[in-house]
Amino acid sequence: MAKGILGLKIGMTSVYLGDTLVPVTVIQAGPCTIVDKKTKDTHGYDAVALGFLEVKAEKLNKPMRGVFEKKGLKPFRFLREVRDMEGEVGDTITVEAFKDVKYVKVTGTSMGKGFQGVVKRWGFGGWPRTHGHEAERRPGSIGQRATPGRVFKGMKMAGHLGNETVTIRNLEIVKVIPEKNLILVKGSVPGPDKGLLLIRA
Q1: DSSP for 116-160, written as a single string
Q2: What is the tens place of the pLDDT at every residue in 81-137?
Q3: CATH of 4-112+164-200 given 3.40.50.1240, 3.40.50.300, 3.40.50.620, 3.30.160.810
C-alpha cells in the first residue's frame, strides 16, 4: 500500500555519505492526521485525506470548518488526498513511516516567474546578434501561410512560466530524523522555502 505525508520545504544543505558530499533538501514532514477516508464502494476510489499544520478555526472559511467539526477534529491549514493509503480517521502519520523507505516521489508547486519570452521559457537559441538583426530574442515563424492558415495547438510561445504542480520521482531518502520530524532527500524538490510538499512512497 502507498505511504504519504505532507511537509514544508525548509531549505537545502549538504551531508557526507562516506567520503562523498551530497546535496540534500531538508523537509519538515508531519505529523499529519487522517481527516477523512474515501472508499471504492462510495467514491469510486480508495484514499485518505491528510491534515497538516493545526490552525485556529476562525482562519478557515465556513465550509472548511464544517469538514473538521463533522469529524470532531482540530482544524488544519492544509488538506490533501493520498490514494491507496491505509488508515482510519484520527490516525497520526509521522516520519517514522518512512524509516524503511529508500525512494520517494515529491510533489510541490514550482516557483512562479511571471510572463517570460521563448528564450527563457523554452530555451530557444534566439536570432543572430550581428549584421543588423533586431530580433535577438523573438520566436521566429509560428506557422504557415494559406495552408493550414492557423497556429497549431501546443506551439511553444511566450507566456506564464512556473507556478505549476511538479512531481519529481525516485528521490533517495538520505536520512530520517523522527525526533525533529525531518526527512533529508537527495537533490532538489519543487517550490520555494516554506512551500507545501506531498511526499509519497
Answers
A1: E-HHHHH------SSTT---TT-----S-SSSS-SPPTT---SEE
A2: 999 888 888 888 899 888 889 999 999 999 999 999 999 999 999 898 888 888 899
A3: 3.30.160.810
